[in-house]
């Protein structure tokens, strides 16, 4: 009997051991299955299939057009006078407005101060122009304006304050004249189509009208030290630096040694585009390394005498930005230029209007094609990289 009982206990023990083994094996399989699925789920969460890949190459483009001086003689603003006593310069720019509007950036040089009628309008040699001039240029699509010229001080500090109060109320980027050192030295960085840029302006002339000591911010008079500090303040923060230069010799179709010296210095600082004014006639376009230099765009609108002074230049370029493998490259592509002419009714000093040479005929300007060939040869005399539009 004792042996039978021992056998029964042994059998029960074996059964319990086998059952426990089965249970443990089952739990192990179940745990492995759960862990397997958990691991798979984790992999899916850390490496989802729908994560977009970074593009290997990114391209951005912005278009820029540049024109010359708005030199507003009394005959020009008298022609713009309206019946209600105001001024409307928009019809004078109606022929070039369709050309300018499509561009992302459009530059012009405001040669005469826009002090406004409240200060009394005036003519050469100390100009003051209606602020409606600015309204017309903004309406035509211009958004970059140089305010540094030899006429900036024509109405003294009062004229500059009135001018800047006007411009500060508009959505444009001005450079070259400021209300304080803090404003002048504050880096202004804009962005268009993913391309960051800064715009600076200087004059080498002031017509003997000295900027008040301690208020040099009113009119940016060029010096190597000033421009170096300004460019270095923004160079590493932007893709493109544009500098407007009021320089050169009035009424000279050639480039002066001083212009060449300054252009080479600006290029060495990494300036991308140099935009020249002051000669009131067109001068050559060239490249110094990768720097585009327009020595003089001439007058856009004025009542100066002679075809040379009534002929100006519209220059354009495509700014291209390529980012590849985290390296950014900026190139200036498709540089182009076309001539413009300010026409008015002969003898009456009325009906001022700026025409592209492509819209001229022998009635508007007798022998206009002869003038076209002459000034085309001037503009292209230092480079074959610029396409001159007919």
Keywords, separated by commas or semicolons:
Purple Acid Phosphatase, chain A, domain 2, disordered N terminus, alpha/beta, 390 residues, 9-stranded mixed sheet, 6-stranded mixed sheet
Q: How would the blueprint of this fold be written?
A:
Elements: H1 2-46, E1 57-70, H2 74-79, H3 97-100, E2 105-109, H4 132-139, E3 144-146, H5 156-167, E4 173-175, H6 181-185, E5 190-192, E6 195-203, H7 224-234, E7 240-246, H8 257-268, E8 273-277, E9 285-288, E10 291-294, E11 299-301, H9 307-310, E12 311-324, E13 327-345, E14 350-356, H10 368-379, E15 387-388
Parallel strand pairs: 1-2, 1-11, 2-3, 3-4, 6-7, 7-8, 8-10, 13-15
Antiparallel strand pairs: 1-12, 5-6, 9-10, 12-13, 13-14
Could you characterize what this model shows?
There is one protein chain. Helix content is 31%, strand content 26%. The longest helix has 45 residues, at 2-46. It is α/β, with parallel strands linked by helices and 390 residues long. Strands 1, 2, 3, 4, 11, 12, 13, 14 and 15 form a 9-stranded mixed beta sheet that branches. A 6-stranded mixed beta sheet has the order 5-6-7-8-10-9, with helices on one face. The protein has a single domain (61-388), classed as 4-Layer Sandwich (Purple Acid Phosphatase, chain A, domain 2), CATH 3.60.21.10. The radius of gyration is 35 Å and the shape is globular.
**Structural class of the helices, strands and pairings?**
alpha/beta
| Rg (C-alpha, Å) | 35 Å
Q: N- to C-terminal separation?
A: 127 Å
The H/E string reads HEHHEHEHEHEEHEHEEEEHEEEHE
Note the overall shape.
Answer: globular
Question: What is the total tally of β strands?
Answer: 15
Proportion of residues in extended strands: 25-35%
Rounded mean pLDDT score: 91
Which spans of ≥5 residues are poorly predicted at pLDDT below 50? 1-7, 29-45
The CATH C-level name is Alpha Beta
Please count the helical segments: 10
For this structure, what is the CATH homologous superfamily? Metallo-dependent phosphatases
- Major β-sheet annotation: 9 strands, mixed
Helix content: 25-40%
Secondary-structure arrangement, i.e. CATH architecture: 4-Layer Sandwich
- What is the CATH topology assignment? Purple Acid Phosphatase, chain A, domain 2
Number of domains: 1
């Amino acid at each position: 009997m004792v042996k039978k009982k021992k056998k029964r206990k042994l059998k029960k023990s074996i059964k319990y051991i086998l059952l426990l083994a089965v249970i443990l094996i089952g739990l192990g399989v179940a745990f492995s299955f759960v862990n397997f699925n958990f691991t798979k789920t984790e992999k899916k969460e850390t490496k989802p299939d729908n994560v977009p890949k970074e593009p290997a190459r990114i391209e951005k483009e912005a278009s820029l057009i540049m024109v010359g001086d708005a030199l507003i003689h009394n005959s020009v603003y008298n022609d713009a006078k309206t019946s209600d006593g105001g001024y409307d310069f928009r019809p004078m720019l109606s022929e070039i407005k369709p050309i300018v509007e499509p561009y992302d950036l459009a530059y012009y040089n405001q040669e005469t101060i826009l002090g406004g009628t409240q200060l009394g309008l005036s003519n050469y040699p100390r100009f003051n122009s209606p602020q409606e001039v600015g309204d017309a240029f903004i309406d035509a699509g211009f958004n970059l304006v140089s305010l540094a010229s030899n006429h900036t001080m024509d109405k003294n500090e009062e004229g500059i304050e009135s001018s800047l109060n006007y411009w500060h109320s508009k959505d444009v980027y001005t450079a070259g004249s400021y209300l304080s050192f803090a404003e002048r030295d504050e880096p202004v960085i804009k962005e268009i189509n993913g391309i960051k840029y800064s715009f600076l302006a200087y004059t080498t002339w002031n017509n003997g009208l000295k900027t008040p000591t301690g208020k040099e911010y009113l009119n940016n008079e060029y010096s190597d030290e000033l421009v170096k500090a300004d460019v270095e303040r923004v160079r590493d923060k932007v893709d493109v630096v544009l500098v407007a230069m009021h320089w050169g010799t009035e009424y000279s179709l050639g480039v002066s040694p001083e212009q060449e010296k300054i252009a080479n210095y600006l290029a060495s600082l990494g300036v991308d585009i140099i935009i020249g004014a002051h000669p009131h006639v067109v001068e050559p376009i060239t490249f110094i390394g990768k720097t585009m230099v327009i020595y003089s765009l001439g007058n856009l609108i004025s009542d100066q005498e002679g075809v040379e002074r009534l002929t100006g230049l519209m220059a354009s370029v495509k700014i291209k930005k390529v980012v590849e493998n985290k390296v950014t490259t900026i190139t200036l592509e498709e540089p182009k230029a076309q001539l413009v002419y300010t026409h008015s009714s002969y003898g009456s000093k009325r009906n001022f209007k700026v025409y592209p040479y492509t819209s001229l005929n022998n009635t508007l300007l007798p022998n206009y094609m002869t003038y076209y060939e002459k000034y085309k040869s001037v503009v292209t005399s230092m480079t074959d990289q610029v396409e001159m539009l007919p």
